[in-house]
Design a protein that fits this description.
The protein is an alpha/beta fold and 524 residues long. 51% of the residues lie in helices and 12% in strands. It has 2 domains: 170 residues, no CATH class; 242 residues, Rossmann fold, CATH 3.40.50.1820.
């Protein structure tokens, strides 16, 4: 027995002595490969940071050019002491914005690298002591793959989603019904060809926002995520107003609130004639504000008998975050003129890139370039994940944010600007006039229009108080959706989601599609 134990111990010692060189060689190979992967990851990391920073700063240079052009005029209109004071206030504002972005960036960097430090030490110990788990080679390979995915693959996936994102009016799923100098009117057909449009059903026309564009309302039709198709797929006669190409259409560049109203009236007349019933007017975000102005002029009387608004800023001064941001800007610089540019044809329009820069500054704690780089890095950082999947939803959302930014008509932007700087007064009179007439929310009582007013619980662009402002003057049915500003058009447009638009919810409220379907039932 003693001889056997002695023999086994000798064999174990011998095997250990033989394996040590091989283990050392394997460890050296892993260290060398890891160093190569780290160098590769570092290079990709630098390219990624540069790309995010470049994309962030691009609108800044355009905004700076607009600022300098405006200041050439204002500089001679103000006294030197006023200019000095205004510029010092502007410097203070810029320092506040910088501090906001810097703090959020440092927090995110700290969170990421603290986690990575722990994992790197663990992987090194696993390698040195031959323990189970992620070794140094697997760790560095994961880092390299992660940075490469974010820097190179992710932008390509975003670009590749374009054929599936938004409206594609040439794919046979839409019918062009009418047009004006400024807009097209399309009927949206059900995606499922087995579903037939109820020609005798109550029709709806959807008014997209100027700022966000129409594409967000057809987010991913092929994935059953489309606000507009939620109506069409129920057999509802569904129409959408689409603005013509901005750059090629001078009439769009100079559109006014009056033009908006007259064109909407023309389309409503056509739809009512086609279906023999008054129209439901549905405005999304800024489209909801434009739509309520149209109703208050009286121009849609007899054509519209129901109204739906979604996350629409009815009194912008009640949007606390944006108003607080505007109040910190010195009064001299609260001028829409800083965002204007002159087109080759002489038309003055609002530069969409400058407006996007304004929003970036407002949300600097979430828009700072290094912060967003690390935020996306952490989003893809799935431990032990060999293949990291980029969802179509994430790709489509980023495509919208990156590529769906257009210039805006001056008169339309001025109306929105006024609504964010001048409150609705105690009598319900809005700060905007159309056709030279005052517009008052109380007129909706006289019209006896059924109104579903939808807002978002976590909306940081249009606060709930802003969307619900008309309730001080008129009755409306309210539905509060979870999540943020775009969730109604993205998350909840999926028919199987918890807050699908065709459902009635636990608190008794209902989505806009259910509201429209119930209007049909009431007539029957």
């Amino acid at each position: 027995m003693d001889n056997t134990q002695s023999s086994n111990s000798s064999n174990d010692l011998c095997n250990l002595m033989i394996s040590i060189p091989w283990k050392l060689m394997d460890m050296n190979v892993k260290m060398i490969m890891s160093s190569a992967e780290l160098m590769k990851a570092a290079q990709t990391y630098i390219n990624g940071i540069y790309g995010y920073y470049f994309n962030f700063m691009t609108p800044f240079w355009i905004a700076l050019n607009s600022f300098l052009s405006m200041e050439k005029i204002k500089f001679v209109q103000h006294k030197p002491d006023e200019t000095s004071r205004d510029y010092l206030d502007l410097l203070h504002f810029n320092l506040q914005i910088t501090k906001k972005g810097l703090l959020s960036t440092l927090r995110t960097i700290n969170d990421f690298h603290a986690q990575e430090l722990e994992r790197s030490i663990s992987s090194l110990l696993n390698t040195l002591f031959d323990r189970k788990g992620e070794d140094i080679s697997a760790y560095t390979e994961r880092l390299s793959r992660l940075t490469e995915l974010l820097t190179y693959h992710y932008p390509q996936v975003i670009r590749d989603i374009e054929p599936e994102f938004g409206f594609h009016f040439d794919d046979g799923n839409y019918i062009k019904v009418a047009e004006t100098d400024r807009f097209y009117l399309y009927q949206v057909l059900p995606r499922d060809k087995k579903i037939k449009v109820r020609e005798e059903g109550k029709p709806i026309i959807i008014i997209p926002p100027y700022v966000l564009g129409a594409s967000i309302l057809a987010f991913l039709p092929g994935e059953d995520k489309s606000y507009t198709h939620c109506f069409a797929n129920q057999g509802i006669p569904t129409y959408i107003r689409i603005m013509k190409d901005f750059n090629d259409t001078p009439a769009v560049q100079t559109i006014t609130g009056e033009n908006d109203c007259l064109d909407t009236r023309h389309f409503c007349e056509i739809i009512k004639t086609r279906h023999g019933r008054p129209v439901t007017l549905n405005g999304f975000c800024q489209g909801g504000f434009s739509a309520v102005l149209n109703l208050l002029t009286g121009g849609l009387d007899g054509l519209v008998d129901a109204f739906i608004t979604c996350v629409a800023p009815m009194d912008g001064t009640r949007s606390k975050a944006l108003v607080e941001y505007l109040e910190h800007i010195p009064e001299r610089f609260r001028d829409l003129g800083y965002a204007l540019k002159t087109l080759p044809n002489g038309n003055r329009v609002v530069d969409g890139k400058v407006m996007s820069w304004v929003y970036k500054l407002k949300s600097m704690d979430r828009e700072a370039p290094i912060f967003t780089f690390y935020r996306d890095l952490m989003m893809f950082d799935k431990q032990n994940a060999k293949e990291i999947e980029i969802t179509k939803t994430a790709a489509a959302l980023n495509y919208w944010l990156v590529y769906e930014r257009n210039d805006l008509p001056l008169a339309i932007t001025q109306m929105s600007f006024d609504s964010y700087t001048k409150p609705v007064n105690s009598e319900g009179i809005l700060p905007v006039k159309l056709f030279g007439r005052e517009l008052n929310f109380t007129r909706l009582k006289e019209m006896k229009i059924k109104w579903l007013l939808c807002c978002a619980e976590e909306d940081d662009l249009v606060d709930r108080e802003s969307a619900l402002a008309p309730l001080d003057f008129v009755d409306a049915e309210v539905t509060v959706f979870p999540k943020g500003h775009g969730a109604i058009a993205t998350s909840w447009s999926l028919p199987t989601s918890e807050y699908a638009l065709h459902k009635r919810f636990k608190d008794g409220s209902r989505g806009p599609v259910r509201f429209q379907l119930d209007l049909d039932k009431e007539r029957k």
